[in-house]
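sry for the spam today, last one i promise. struct tokens for design, 374 residues
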């Protein structure tokens, strides 16, 4: 019977020093369609296991030379063979032998003489468990590979694409500077504005995508620090001033304290401010105002961004923070977006144990209110 194998999804290695036992087991397994490999002593087991990659091992305990216990220890110590389930074959049913075998890593035991029904039931159980375990391992390996690929993609996007956009922005500034004192026709002026606007939007979308990706993979961690909220607001307003001017939208700032300090994650809070301002400008028309206000109250920081733009319907307000249903709306200049900005705002505010509220009506503008405990 040794090396007598049939085409089968499962291969079982029999280890027994008695030829009649091998013949009996081989016949039972062969009738069930299992592939069978057999060896007659413990010294041959590891080699046979490596050569034939069995799905399960039936291992006799009492053998001359190496016992089944010793063989099982060797199998479990081998990284490539350790996951193969071992069912001990024993002529004795003493409790101490059974416990010893299970403690060494054995999956089960069967006593001699064999009851073929019991034997096949136990084999089927452990092959099913191994199949499920192997499937989980393959899925985990696949996920790990996908994770590595995703991390590489994020790295390329973060480094190469951001670098490319930065380079284009620099070139655009050079062109604008060179043409500053030159007579330019209206179409060229409009094209330059569109380039600047597109770069601002592209940078914002890229930053949001990277932040969202890090958030989904638990790579984005809270780093709270004490900093000037006033300075962070000024910085983001200056960043978006060109965008606002192109749409002829005025940004107004109202601070309860000119040096308003806050304890929070600076990057997250900056992202919130930038996204709320960008969103307000996007849905505002020429001549509208966007008002950003921040005050320090006993409960913490209250921050709001209010615009006079197109507003939202009740349905949009209801789903605005739903990641599975992001309403697609174009801005007043037909600007598009991913919808990630407001989702990030909600996630980042909640990471600070804060809350965000919306008041909005169609044609009446939108008012975002944020509360950040301090």
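last one done:
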């Amino acid at each position: 019977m040794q090396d007598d194998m049939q085409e089968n999804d499962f291969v079982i290695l029999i280890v027994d020093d008695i030829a009649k036992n091998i013949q009996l087991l081989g016949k039972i397994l062969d009738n069930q369609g299992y592939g069978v490999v057999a060896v007659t002593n413990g010294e041959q087991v590891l080699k046979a296991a490596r050569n034939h990659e069995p799905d399960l091992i039936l291992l006799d305990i009492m053998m001359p030379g190496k016992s089944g216990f010793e063989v099982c220890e060797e199998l479990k110590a081998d990284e490539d063979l350790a996951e193969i389930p071992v069912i001990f074959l024993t002529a004795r049913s003493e409790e101490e032998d059974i416990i010893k075998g299970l403690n060494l890593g054995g999956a089960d035991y069967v006593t001699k003489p064999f009851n073929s029904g019991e034997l096949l039931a136990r084999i089927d159980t452990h092959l099913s468990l191994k199949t499920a375990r192997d499937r989980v391992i393959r899925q985990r390996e696949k996920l790990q590979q996908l994770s590595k690929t995703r991390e590489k993609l994020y790295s390329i996007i973060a480094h190469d694409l951001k670098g490319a956009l930065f380079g284009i922005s620099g070139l655009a500034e050079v062109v604008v500077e060179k043409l500053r004192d030159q007579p330019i026709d209206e179409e060229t002026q409009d094209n330059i504005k569109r380039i600047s606007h597109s770069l601002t939007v592209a940078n914002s979308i890229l930053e949001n995508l990277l932040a969202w990706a890090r958030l989904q993979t638990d790579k984005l961690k809270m780093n709270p620090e004490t900093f000037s909220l006033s300075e962070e607001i000024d910085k983001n307003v200056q960043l978006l001033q060109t965008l606002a001017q192109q749409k002829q939208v005025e940004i107004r700032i109202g601070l309860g304290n000119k040096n308003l300090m806050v304890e929070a994650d600076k990057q997250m809070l900056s992202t919130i401010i930038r996204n709320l301002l960008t969103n307000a400008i996007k849905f505002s028309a020429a001549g509208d105002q966007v008002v950003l206000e921040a005050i320090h109250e006993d409960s913490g920081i209250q921050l709001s961004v209010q615009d006079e733009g197109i507003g939202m319907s009740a349905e949009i307000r209801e789903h605005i923070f739903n990641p599975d249903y992001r309403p697609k709306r174009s801005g007043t200049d037909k600007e598009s977006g991913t919808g990630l900005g407001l989702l990030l705002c909600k996630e980042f505010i909640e990471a600070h144990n804060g809350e965000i509220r919306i008041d909005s009506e169609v044609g009446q503008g939108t008012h975002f209110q944020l509360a950040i405990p301090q």
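The chain has ten helices and twelve strands. ok im logging off now
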